[in-house]
Amino acid sequence: MLEIKNISKTFNPNSINEKRALDNLSLTLNDGDFVTVIGGNGAGKSTLLNAIAGTWLVDSGSIVLDGEDVTNLAEHQRAKFLGRVFQDPMMGTAANMQIEENLALANRRGNKRGLAWQITPGEKEYYLEMLKLLNLGLENRMTTKVGLLSGGQRQALTLLMATLKEPKLLLLDEHTAALDPKTAKIVLDLTVELVKKSNLTTFMVTHNMRDALNYGNRLIMMNEGKIILDVSGKEKEKLTINDLLELFNKNGELNDSMILS
Amino acid sequence: MYIVYSLSLNSLLKALPGNVAQGMLWGIMALGLYITYKVLNFSDLTVDGSLSTGAAVTVMLILKGFPAISAVLIAFVAGCLAGLVTGFLHTVLKIAPILSGILTQIALYSINLHILGNKANQSISINEHHLLLSLRDTGKAIIVALIFAGILMAILYWFFGTELGSSIRATGNNEQMAKAQGININLTKMIALALSNGIVALSGGLLAQYQGFADVSIGRGAIVIGLAAIIIGSVIVEGKRKKDHNFILMLGSAVVGGIIYYISIGVVLWLRLPTNDMKLFTAILVAIFLSIPHLSLKKKEKKDAGN
Prior knowledge:
The structure holds 2 protein chains of 2 kinds.
Chain A: E1 2-11, E2 19-29, E3 34-39, H1 45-53, E4 60-65, E5 68-69, H2 75-78, E6 82-85, H3 99-107, H4 121-134, H5 151-164, E7 169-173, H6 181-198, E8 201-205, H7 209-214, E9 218-223, E10 226-232, H8 233-238, H9 241-250, H10 256-260
Parallel strand pairs in A: 3-8, 3-9, 6-7, 7-8
Antiparallel strand pairs in A: 1-2, 1-4, 4-5, 9-10
Helix pairs in contact in A: 3-5, 5-6
Chain B: H1 2-6, H2 9-40, H3 47-63, H4 68-92, H5 97-115, E1 121-123, H6 138-159, H7 163-173, H8 175-180, H9 185-211, E2 213-215, H10 222-238, H11 247-270, H12 278-306
Antiparallel strand pairs in B: 1-2
């Protein structure tokens, strides 16, 4: 599904702020993998996610998605493969547009956009059914502007938008970090439900070790732009928070938010 | 005695149709500005230049014997090109929006002089040419302006309801979201800038015919008048309820805002205030309308706090 080979990325090269964010990193994701990614601040988790999403181009190496080399494709060109949810609940939706308009935009991800009407009547029914899955009552507010929704509602909607048109890969960038614990739980459960429904290949960055252990079939730990741990299946199930803490300690990358979470 | 005579209501009413006509023409310009300012969220200063371009192109083509309507349509295309230049500076050369617009605007000053045959202005007489409208017949001018405003509003309402139009709105809302949905935001910005400046140039072409000449500096301060129209309009429509607004209502309010702006100017002239201070009055007027939503909100908060 996803084949990353020897990618590197250095920010602010040749300056005092030079930072090697990805260091000759390789990673292969299989169809249906649900990977949780952890690591300290600056370990490169979000950088790796952004490299896949195409926020910028990598300095070297290659990225192949679903058999297509996307290494040099712009962000909007890669979007046809990817569903994305951001850390900031405001990032994933258009605030001044209606709920159904946002869904219609998401439903056309990767399509050419022409002069056809933005929403067809048949689509509305489909969106209504999908919104019911969220259990937030949004199905009764299809023409409400998204800016009037709460952060949790917006994040749930973003999640629905990311999966509405089945992506080859779902990218979640600490998507519950900005939510209160209760809402975070709802959004996470919803994530699992939507991922299961279509058996989506998922790449979830988190700083919550418990979530990283509880969700998914595979866990990656990063440090200094490299993958320092990659476990899956039974091996991952046996993993405990103490194991992870020990690993963090060994790499001197333990931070408060991780201990507290 | 003289002052009493000069402030007669009669003279104010006599000036009214002209103010309405001119206000509507600037309202058409505001429709164009609405696309960049409100929909794309892009402060585009190209308009001061592209309005003059539209006026210059229209007048020169009519002088060359083109029918007035096709001259105006070609002016629209010329305006689109000006918008594309700003779009190129911003999306390809990564120059900040305001600077991109200013650069195009400055460049257009020279280009407009060239279009006008290296003169600062060119006149067209209604006696010698067939014009769409003229200040000689304000009634007809209002009808022509109304037709153009109506057609443009219908087209814009339709366009921004299409897939392409909604992707432009998404770009204006949230670029990151737009990119994640596979929208090429460079393309959507280019289209919006072209469309916006095309409409501005078209209004310039109508204005030139109305006043009977094109002047290289006809567009000076256009952005302020356009913003005034949009803001006055939105203050009227939004008023107390800051809720959902129909897009076509917002467009219509911009045109109405233009009319109200010109009636206010008419009142200022009627009061015999010095015309040299006109721009000062304009700035004060716009500042007042800009602050109304904020001030009324404050008042409401105070009231709520009191309860």
